[in-house]
Specification:
With about 230 residues, the chain is an alpha/beta fold. The chain has one domain: Uracil-DNA Glycosylase, subunit E. It contains eight helices and six strands. α1 packs antiparallel against α5 and α4 packs across α8.
Length: about 230
C-alpha cells in the first residue's frame, strides 16, 4: 500500500473509534449542547483525524482537539484561538499557504508539515486520563512509522512531549521545556514548545515571537543549515 492509502485507512479506523467511553460521551454531549456562538453549526463530534503533507519533514503534535474547535470543525487546530496562533506561526515558517484555519473547507494546505495529536477526541477539561492516552497511542505510533521523512517532531505542551518520549522509548525521561531538544530514534529530533493555548498566551508564558523563533530554528534544522546540538 502507498503512504496515502495507509494513512487514509488509519484515518478511517480513527474516525470510527469508540474505545474510550468517557471521551465518546463528552464529545457527543458537547456536539449537542454547543456553544451559543456556534448554535447553528453542525458539530463534527467524532475523533478528529490528523492532516498535512504526507512527505513532511516536520510533525506537530498537540494534546487533543478543543471541544469547540476541532471537535466542532473536524480538523485539528481549526476554529479556535490556539489554532489562530499556531497556523499564523506555521504560515510564517513556510509550512502553511495561509495564516488562517477557520473550517475544513477554508483552503488551508500544509507544506512540509503534518499536524496530529496524542488523543484524538476532545477530553473534559482538556485532561485525558493515562488510560485514554495509552489507547490512542496506536495512531501516533503508526503515523511516526509511516511518515518516514519526518526529521523534527514538535511537541506542543508537556503532555505531548512526555507522550512522544514514551512512544519512542526515550530513557531516561527528559524534562519538558520550551526549546528543549531531544534526540529520537531513526535520525529524528524532538523539540518542546509551550502549547499555544489561551492559558499560556494570555499569561505571556508563550508569545508569538517565541513560537516564530522556535519554528525558524526547526526550519534551519530540517534544511541542514543548523545542527540541533548547537541549540541545546
Amino acid at each position: 500500500m502507498s503512504i496515502r492509502s495507509e494513512l487514509e485507512a488509519l484515518s478511517d479506523e480513527l474516525i470510527a473509534c469508540r474505545a474510550c467511553p468517557r471521551l465518546v460521551a463528552w464529545r457527543e454531549e458537547v456536539s449537542l449542547r454547543k456553544r451559543a456562538s456556534f448554535a447553528n453549526e453542525q458539530y463534527w463530534g467524532k475523533p478528529v483525524p490528523s492532516f498535512g503533507d504526507l512527505y513532511a519533514r516536520v510533525m506537530l503534535v498537540g494534546l487533543a482537539p478543543a471541544a469547540h474547535g476541532g471537535n466542532r470543525t473536524g480538523r485539528m487546530f481549526t476554529g479556535d484561538r490556539s489554532g489562530d496562533l499556531l497556523i499564523r506561526a506555521m504560515w510564517r515558517a513556510g509550512w502553511a499557504n495561509q495564516p488562517q484555519s477557520i473550517s475544513k473547507d477554508d483552503g488551508l494546505v500544509l507544506k512540509d508539515a503534518f499536524v496530529t495529536a496524542v488523543v484524538h477526541c476532545a477530553p473534559p477539561s482538556n485532561k485525558p486520563t493515562p488510560q485514554e492516552r495509552t489507547r490512542c497511542s496506536h495512531f501516533l505510533e503508526k503515523e511516526l512509522l509511516l511518515l518516514e521523512k519526518v526529521r523534527v517532531v514538535i511537541a506542543l505542551g508537556s503532555f505531548a512531549f512526555d507522550s512522544l518520549c514514551r512512544v519512542e522509548g526515550v530513557t531516561p525521561r527528559p524534562t519538558f521545556g520550551h526549546g528543549r531538544w531531544v534526540e529520537l530514534p531513526r535520525q529524528r529530533w524532538l523539540v518542546g514548545s509551550y502549547h499555544p493555548s489561551q492559558q499560556n498566551t494570555f499569561t505571556g508564558r508563550l508569545t508569538e515571537d517565541m513560537l516564530n523563533t522556535l519554528f525558524a530554528e526547526v526550519v534551519s534544522v530540517v534544511q541542514g543549515s543548523k545542527e540541533p546540538a548547537s541549540l541545546l
